[in-house]
Predict the 3D structure of the following.
Amino acid sequence: MIDVNVGAALWLTQAVVPYPRERGSGSIVHVAARPGLEPAAGMATSAVSKAALVHLTRVLDLELRPLGIRVNDVTAQILDTAKNRQYLTPDLRAHAVTPEAVDRAGPASSSR
């Protein structure tokens, strides 16, 4: 989970930073999850890896903002995906957010 949630975000950020740095502006958005902000029982691996992603996002923002590059995260409560759907009760599914809705939210709706 650490490799998937934090490693990928770090490696992708490192790969794309040269392009907005060259232009003097840009935005990078990572997708976090609520357990990264508010721990929940039974989700230790996911919560710890998402908490690390949230902190990585904040550190990267501090480091890259002087270069004109904003780094934010979008933190959905629950994502309604095919994989998650099997675990969601009808009540949870009613409050779930589709990945497409997160995509439309963009940087202006991020957690900071």
